[in-house]
Amino acid sequence: MLSLVLSSLIVIGGVTVWYFQKQNSIYHQDRLERKERAIKKEMGFFSDHVSLQENNDIVIREFEEKVAQLAQVHNLQISVYNTQGEVLVTGVPDTGSLIPPLSNIPAEELARVHTEKRIVMEDPRDANVLSDYTLLTNQSNQVVGILHIPYFKDPSMSQQDLNAFLGSIGVVYIFIFIAAIGIIILLSNYITRNISLLIDRLQNVDLKGQNKLIELDSDDEIGALVHAYNLMLETLEKSRKQLALTERETAWREMARQVAHEIKNPLTPIKLSVQHLSATANYTDPEWQEKFNKTMEVIIQQTESLSLIATEFSDFAKLPKGSSSDIDLRTLVSDSAMLFNASEVEIVQRIPEYELVVHVNAERFGRVLTNLLQNAVQASAGKSDAQITLSMYQKDAMAVIEVQDNAGGIPADIQGRVFQPNFTTKSSGSGLGLAICKQIVEQSGGIISFESIADQGTTFSVEVPLAD
Length: 468
Description:
CATH architecture of the largest domain: 2-Layer Sandwich
Number of domains: 3
Radius of gyration: 59 Å
């Protein structure tokens, strides 16, 4: 826009200068013509009674006085030449001679005057001087002389008008330029504001949550971009809902498959044991009685396994229950470790003397510690130097619990799946233990993580905010 304003200013300025120069030339031409007509008319009263004579002195005496008078009246230098182009008389005003008169009119100009009767040309000695040559005739229409009027084209008046006009245009264009800058700033702010808003929204698009549409009623390119953005959000929302539905359906299918698999595992030995008892039934045989008792133990054990599986799935699926309270983690950790005193694995406790009070559900958080200790004990089973270290300490505003074993570590290829539901490396169990632990810790505002070193061991860390 600014380049357009500047270009138009240059073009209008150039056209204006050309126009003023042309008008100035026309003005001086017309003024000279008016002067020439007036002088010729006044001289006509004398030239009408003049006849061609060989003695030029007679013509000079006839015109000399009148030419001097007219030169004073019109403030112009006036010269009279004979028909051969020789100067006869010159009248000079009080202001002085404009340009010395030629003693002879050049042959080319003389021929043109006789042909065209009047010519106006720039004086070859000064470009600002116009020379007007016109024929003087008598009553018989006989040429008796040539009238010459040099006229000075004063450019100062025209230049003043031009400067004034250009100054006015300049002032107008200054205001136009300022207005254009203001409009550009407003347009730039409008465009950049909407683009900045669009960029900010694009950078903060939440693929899993709600995204706010941009409200902009505009049909320009920015409006088209905003419309495309809103359309993208609507499509993304539909895709997100469809994905969530698909994920839920997939999760339920996987859960149903896992439940069916876990229930089928204990049912198989129960079925085989009952079928064996039925095939070998002999109620009076002591050996059969012993088999019967062992079979009942298997059935009870597998039934308890079924109950445990059902409880784990229920705990994983249902919402948290119970209320939270401020507890000293030292007591909760000590009580959890006491449950494994009968195990073959040594548990070393490193509990600080200072309190570590957190706001959690004691029952559910105790289950986290029990599960971590149980996994460490099971992983360490059969190792002669097995040892579990249970540590507690404060890190900034967090209470940290670490359960470290020396059971050889978790293979690198499965470390990313440790907290996934239904994943387990054991021959029994639902694979929900660590998933439930993660759920409980995160619901308490904490973080659970682990670090495992191959052929050495694994350390599980639980960080929970300290109570205010």
